[in-house]
């Protein structure tokens, strides 16, 4: 299947500093891609380049075969800006109807607003909305007219945990109907379970682009084991297992993914001395730190 | 005129109505027009013209200041306001082109301005005609005043969009709009006056000054209204400069300026990176 969004060796300069450096990225129809990075890593700039709102200096971007900013591309793209707000004098229904008119799509506005949980606030002015409600209104306009590509810039900012669950349910729906979804975020722990692939930007350079499992094995981050000893026998345990003492009753040791089972068998063989083992596999947080913060060359 | 521009115009008009702008602008026009009409009604008898003529002459002077002011107050945050809210990038990601967006805003603001001008000048004119008489000439002058005031407003709406596009925030746009108003309505005339005084009736005063004057839309508005009606000219005592120019000069300037202004605004808006 052809990719909905194809970005090929895109460069962009702001003055003399390079804000995007040789970025390659593609999203297939129905795929959910998380784009991670610190503030200033180039996430928003990349999204604006895809929208054709800012020029790129080299490389190419194709949205379902169309150039960024072209009429065809704008028709196929949905966008949720970071922390968006709307004119306070309009109601939610009026604002969404305007967007429906602009997109040229016939839309059931009340149904869309109900889908994002704004059914009660349909005819209230946006000035009375909370930050989370404005974000939901922004999300409702993403659902207009079955976009081919959806670009969501920090979609969870300002949302409470329950709203976040709703948000990801909606993102899943978009993906199911064949939309390529790009989610720029630094809410790492949520993205972990909810996306198919993860790309990480650092200072305008793409430093990672793979599934979570692949990224984990690529980074070869250790799994942490914490072993708790029977009362009074911590000295004995520490001698036998090695690792570092973390409190009066436990030791902690790290092992790579392929050594994990061997370690577990060794510890299990120790018998009654061990009362508990807890295991922490590397998480997105650790991966992100590994890829985004270290000075990898 | 595209459906998308009309959709934006409808939405903007709703905003103007809801945040009381339409009401305030109309109220301001009515109050000032009434005040000037009745404060300026004294010279009727001595000049031998009807009261509507006097009223139109006073309201012409008023409109030179008020039409640009109201227009700039409506338009200065048309672009920067959306950008401050973060909704401009979203708006620009929709299929509506920048020209359509600008046209939609322009249509709604112009409609609001036209409503305020027509109601304001119309009310004062009707009252003047009712209390002091009116003729065909003075009724024509009133119609001309309303139409040219809307044109003058259109010029400053467009300039306001330009200012709004190049400003980094709505606050900056407000400041720049005030500067634009001051330059076009006050300082330009002062500068010309100074030059005429220095020149002491020489070549500049005879040949260049009238053209420089009508190049400014605010002055073109004044000249058009005064030159077109002899009685209004008599009442306002401003015949000299107007008579030095061909009759088409002032109308041409005032009709060209909205087009130039809109083209400048479109150019500035095109360079905006939200």
TrEMBL record, chain A:
Query: One GO MF term, please?
Result: ATP binding
Record carries keyword Ligase = no
InterPro entries from the entry? Answer: AAA+_ATPase, ABC_transporter-like_ATP-bd, ABC_transporter-like_CS, ABC_Transporter_VariousFunc, P-loop_NTPase
Q: What Pfam family does this protein match (any one)?
A: ABC_tran
Looking at the record, the residues that make up the ABC transporter domain are 5-228
Instruction: List the keywords (alphabetical).
Output: ATP-binding, Nucleotide-binding, Transport
Please give the PANTHER family that the UniProt record associates with this protein: ABC TRANSPORTER ATP-BINDING PROTEIN ALBC-RELATED
> What is this protein called in UniProt?
ATP-binding cassette domain-containing protein
Provide the species name: Parasedimentitalea huanghaiensis
Q: What is the lineage of its organism?
A: Bacteria, Pseudomonadati, Pseudomonadota, Alphaproteobacteria, Rhodobacterales
Automatic annotation (TrEMBL), chain B:
Question: Does the keyword field hold Repeat?
Answer: no
One Pfam family this sequence matches: ABC2_membrane_2
Return the GO cellular component terms, semicolon-separated. Answer: plasma membrane
Keyword list (alphabetical) reads: Membrane, Transmembrane, Transmembrane helix
* A molecular function GO annotation: ABC-type transporter activity
Which branch of life, at top level? Answer: Bacteria
What transmembrane ranges does the database entry give? 21-42, 62-81, 102-130, 142-163, 175-197, 248-269
What's this protein's name?
ABC transporter permease subunit
What species was this sequence derived from?
Parasedimentitalea huanghaiensis
């Amino acid at each position: 299947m052809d990719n909905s969004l194809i970005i090929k060796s895109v460069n962009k300069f702001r003055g003399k500093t390079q804000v995007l450096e040789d970025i390659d990225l593609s999203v297939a129809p129905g795929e959910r891609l998380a784009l991670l990075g610190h503030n200033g890593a180039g996430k928003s700039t990349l999204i604006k380049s895809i929208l054709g709102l800012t020029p790129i200096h080299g490389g190419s971007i194709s949205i379902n075969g169309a150039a960024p900013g072209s009429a065809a591309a704008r028709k196929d793209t949905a966008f949720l800006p970071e922390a968006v707000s709307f004119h306070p004098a309009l109601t939610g229904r009026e604002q969404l109807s305007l967007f429906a008119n602009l997109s040229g799509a016939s839309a059931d506005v009340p149904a869309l607003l109900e889908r994002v949980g704004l059914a009660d606030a349909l005819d209230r002015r946006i000035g009375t909305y909370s930050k989370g409600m404005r974000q939901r209104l922004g999300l409702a306009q993403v659902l207009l007219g079955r976009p081919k590509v959806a670009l969501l810039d920090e979609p969870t900012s300002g949302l409470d945990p329950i709203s976040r669950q709703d948000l990801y349910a909606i993102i899943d729906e978009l993906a199911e109907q064949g939309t390529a979804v790009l989610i720029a975020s630094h809410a790492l722990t949520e993205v972990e379970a909810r996306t198919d692939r993860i790309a990480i930007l650092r200072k305008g350079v793409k430093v990672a682009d793979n599934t979570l499992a692949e990224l984990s094995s690529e980074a070869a981050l250790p799994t942490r084991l914490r072993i708790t000893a029977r009362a009074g026998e911590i000295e004995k345990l520490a001698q036998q297992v090695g690792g570092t003492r973390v409190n009066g009753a436990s030791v902690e040791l790290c092992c790579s993914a392929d050594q994990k089972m061997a370690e577990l068998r060794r510890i299990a063989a120790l018998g009654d001395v061990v009362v508990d083992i807890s295991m922490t596999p590397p998480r997105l947080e650790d991966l992100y730190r590994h890829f985004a913060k270290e000075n990898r060359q | 005129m595209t459906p998308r521009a009309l959709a934006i115009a409808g939405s903007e008009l709703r905003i103007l109505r809801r945040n009381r702008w339409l009401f305030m602008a109309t109220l301001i026009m009515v109050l000032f027009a009434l005040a000037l009409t009745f404060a300026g009604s004294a010279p009727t008898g001595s000049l031998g013209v009807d009261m509507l003529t006097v009223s139109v002459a006073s309201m012409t002077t008023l409109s030179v200041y008020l039409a640009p002011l109201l227009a700039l107050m409506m338009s200065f945050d048309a672009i920067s306001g959306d950008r401050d809210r973060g909704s401009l990038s979203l708006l620009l990601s929709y299929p509506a082109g920048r020209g359509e967006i600008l046209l939609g805003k322009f249509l709604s603001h112009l409609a609001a301005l036209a409503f305020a001008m027509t109601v304001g000048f119309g009310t004062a004119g009707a009252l003047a005609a009712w209390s002091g008489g009116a003729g065909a000439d003075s009724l024509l002058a009133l119609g001309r005043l309303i139409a040219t005031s809307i044109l003058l407003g259109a010029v400053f709406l467009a300039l306001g969009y330009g200012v709004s596009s190049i400003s980094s925030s709505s606050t900056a746009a407000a400041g720049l709009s005030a500067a634009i108003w001051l330059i076009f309505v006050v300082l330009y005339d002062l500068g010309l006056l100074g030059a005429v005084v220095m020149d002491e009736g020489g070549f500049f005063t005879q040949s260049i000054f009238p053209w420089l004057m009508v190049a400014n839309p605010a002055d073109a508005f004044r000249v058009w209204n005064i030159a077109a009606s002899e009685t209004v000219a008599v009442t306002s005592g401003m015949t000299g400069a107007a008579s030095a120019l061909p009759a088409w000069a002032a109308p041409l300037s005032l009709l060209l300026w909205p087009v130039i202004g809109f083209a400048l605004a479109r150019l500035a808006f095109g360079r905006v990176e939200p």
